[in-house]
Amino acid sequence: MNRFFVLSLICVGMGCTETTTKEDQKKTTSVAEPISETPPSVLTSNSPASNSRASQPANSSPIGMAASDDRIVLTDYSSESLLDFQHQYDGKGQKYILEALASGMATIDFDADGLMDVYFLNGASIGPQMAELLPNALYRNLGDFQFARVSELSGTDDRNFSTGVAVADYDNDGFSDIFVNNYGPDRLFRNNGDGTFSDLTETAKVSRMELGAGACFFDADGDGLLDLYSSNYVKSPVEKNVKRTTNGNTIYPGPLDFEPENDFFFRNEGDGTFTDLTRECGIAEIRTTSMGTVATDYDNDGDIDLVIVNDLDRNVLLENDGTGKFIDVGIQRGIAFSFDGRRNGNMGVDCADYDNNGSMDLYTTTFSNEFPVLYKNDGTGNFSDVTLATGAGGRMKPHANWGTSFLDIENDGDKDLFIANGHVDPNVQLWAFNTSWKVANSVLLNEAGKFKDISTTVGSGLLPVESSRGSVAEDLDNDGDIDLVVLNSLATPTVIKNDTVSSNNWLEIRLVGRTACRDATGSRVHVYLDGKTLTDEVHSGRGYQSSFGQRLSFGLGKSTTVPKVKIRWSDGKEENLSELPVNQLLTIIQK
After folding, report:
1. If you count Cβ atoms within 10 Å of the first and of the last residue's Cβ in the chain, which end, N or C, has fewer?
2. Are strands 261-262 and 494-498 parallel, antiparallel or unpaired?
3. pLDDT at 501 > cutoff 70
């Protein structure tokens, strides 16, 4: 692993003070420093100020030099990573629908040491009397792309049937917390800042007993406090289980065999508690089979809206009026259905500006015999299904798709796509000729707005074939490119290390709010390059019932400097930075 110096530049008046260098950063529990009342902005870099050959990541060419052998390489690092989590559930042969859904996962820097850790959700033994199996598992990043399990010691080993997760610093203390959406009681784990978590679910008043799905934290009313959206799937999936067969084979029931459940919205009161404002915020009468969620400012009006994709139901786009009240505009804005008016079996959703027009586009994964859908935002908040025109469906129509993420694999400034695949039923091959329980995952390369399926040409990382569910995309070794971890149903995870050889440069940004929420969830960053502007947001909750990417990553192509960065914080305040160095991980604290 390439080791980086840590350089802190604290701008004071007309000069800068160099504070700390650390050549070999090890995993130790650390305490975040409090933010004073009137500090300057702080830029913290993970590499030397000089752009010398020695300061470049191992997989990058020196700045300004072209690499003759640039190539995308994704390496299967499942064994080497020591991420030995085993996903389980046991329906006792009853074919409960929730078996097919499990589970999502998350990344979190729980000990604030600058290395992203990994959290997996697990199932349980299902029936009138739920029984425990293996718990959820938190793995600490040790560096060198290796991890150690710490869930029992940390107190995050929930043993309910877990489905969705969202990570954020809901209490603004500088440490990321975890909300777990379950079948049964949900869990809110507050990070104590010493490597342990406390279960404050009852104190916070956010637990419900429905079959949970995706969840996300976001600041709905701009008060600097992160509110919580908790989505749900169907009512009584065990008590009212439906027996279904096809060609004499027992199969899982579908979402239309059950009554859909409504979602919940909780306002953060700032004292460690939340208030259920589901009815007051306008969503109580919206009952859909919710799956993936993401919070994004789709219409560029400065407040955060919500996208909820649904299984064999219309997708929902909750437009925020700026005060935390919502109206569903999914049909009017063009995301409720696919281009042919179809209610897809939607699973996961992610958002990014894939065409670099300054607005967030959407990508939804779907069930077998449906293409996943790319919804292009025209810049005014109206969307159109451009899946076929762009090739964003790849070769995935026969297969069920779950986890998904926009990521810039080779740091050329265009967002590519990763999709996790696999059917719901281990016996699907008995009645379906065009798919199977275990399916290889997919990578689509963005080439000027058109997507090309490169899954079979990128190395060993796409060779594992499992039935995948949740996935995360994160720079796990701080080398400037995005790696992947995939939760596989009834199996161990797939870990994909990005070993791409590239002469492209990059910039990673971690935001720290002051008047905005501390972890800057909902803040938007524009990176201005010559001839191109890159846009991204800080999210909590995305993909298939997962949570990742609170640290923003920008591929800069051949740019050797960043002329301008504009930050619109989640409270609406704006800042501009200029002439930033490339190939850096910068921490920017709000003025």
Report:
1. N
2. unpaired
3. yes
